[in-house]
């Protein structure tokens, strides 16, 4: 008896990419393209935080999604490493007199403090802008 024949390969609809580079994983965040580790555990240095192009503003937005209707001010686009983000978040929380956290490179400050946060960020030398309405 002959073994069953293998099916013919399926045709592809276009050029096949040789390698797929993972950029973000849901559970671990940004992935270093050099060593394929989480960016904050990068061993090769290629996953270091890149600065945005000159003139790219830091965005300060208001968000209520997933918080039961409670507003938080979200600061995105800061070109800082995690320890510097924590230090800046602490200063911003003290300036607003409220709590907050740093998650995945984004600073979240409890409450509606966009105007005050933009003023504080400009005072620290960041080109901050209000985002949203």
The CATH class of the largest domain is: Alpha Beta
Average pLDDT confidence is: 76
- Major sheet details: 5 strands, mixed
State which percent range the strand residues make up.
15-25%
- Helical fraction: 10-25%
CATH topology of the largest domain: Translation Initiation Factor Eif1
Number of helices: 2
Q: What's the domain count? A: 2
Placed side by side, the strands forming the largest sheet appear as 5-6-4-3-7
The second-level CATH architecture of the largest domain is: 2-Layer Sandwich
What's the shape?
elongated
Span between termini: 74 Å
CATH superfamily of the largest domain: SUI1-like domain
E-strand count: 7
Global Rg: 22 Å
Order of helices and strands: EEEEHEEHE
- What low-confidence regions span 5 or more consecutive residues with pLDDT below 50? none
The structure class reads alpha+beta
